[in-house]
Specification:
The chain has a three-stranded antiparallel β-sheet with strand order 1-3-2. The chain is elongated, with a radius of gyration of 21 Å. It has 232 residues and is mainly alpha-helical. The chain has eleven helices and three strands, in the order αβααββαααααααα. Keywords: DNA-binding, Plasmid, Transcription, Transcription regulation. It comes from Sinorhizobium fredii (strain NBRC 101917 / NGR234). This is Transcriptional regulator, GntR Family.
């Protein structure tokens, strides 16, 4: 009796892929949040023990992180969290400005009262997190604000694309949020963008967004002076 061949991967392969994805997602979040500092050594054995798995899914996760530019693998030396490449940030800012100009201008044209209420709720949460000096949750709402604008515009795919484009910007920005007053400044910039969208003022919305995003490069130059080991 002949057995029909399976069309898909076996359960062991699926489990390994799922495990590798989980490891990738956790390390990705820890690197972007700077919980894992630039230059830190990542040991396959220790990560495997932490997750209770073999080294194979760990190696797969690290390879994906290397492709994303978040780790560097040196065969004779080990694997390290990559330093933030200053040379990559200006281009990423240009791309982000271009795409977010598109989304905010479109949002200003089509936003409904419900859309504005959605932005208001996000800004209110940002104010609350800023008052508690809670940078981690503030950052989550920062992301939610920009994602909401893309959704309001009807271009959610733009935000999906931007998440990969702005990875190194995000790592640098994590260093700015603990700076006194920075979270309040960001919140007020978001409020200005919200007001322009609510007024259906396309030009003002665009200008407010460009002002908001334009602060990244000056911030990074200042950060390099304070954290020289974090940047390459």
């Amino acid at each position: 009796m002949r057995h029909q061949a399976s069309d898909g991967p076996g359960p062991i392969r699926l489990l390994r892929v799922t495990t590798a994805a989980a490891i990738y997602q956790q390390l990705h979040a820890q690197i972007v949040s700077l919980e894992l500092k630039p230059g830190l050594s990542l040991q396959e054995k220790r990560i495997a023990e932490q997750f209770g798995v073999s080294r194979t899914p760990v190696r797969e996760a690290l390879l994906r992180l290397a492709e994303a530019g978040l780790v560097e693998i040196f065969p004779q030396s080990g694997t390290f969290v990559s330093r933030i490449p200053l040379s990559a940030i200006p281009e990423a800012v240009v791309i982000r400005k271009s795409l977010e100009r598109t989304t905010v201008e479109r949002a200003a044209q089509v936003a409904t009262a419900g859309d504005i209420a959605r932005l208001d709720r996000i800004i209110a949460r940002q104010r609350a997190h800023a008052s508690l000096n809670d940078a981690a949750h503030f950052y989550e709402q920062d992301e939610a604000f920009h994602e909401a604008i893309s959704a309001i515009a009807g271009y959610p795919g733009i935000w999906t694309l931007l998440k990969s484009v702005k990875l190194q910007i995000d790592r640098a920005r994590r260093l700015t949020l603990p700076v006194p007053g920075r979270m309040t400044t960001v919140t007020e910039e978001h409020a200005a963008i919200r007001d322009a969208i609510a007024a259906h003022d396309k030009a003002r919305a665009s200008a407010a967004m460009m002002h908001h995003l334009g602060a990244v490069i000056p911030d990074v130059e200042a950060l390099r002076a304070h954290h020289p080991d974090y940047f390459a």
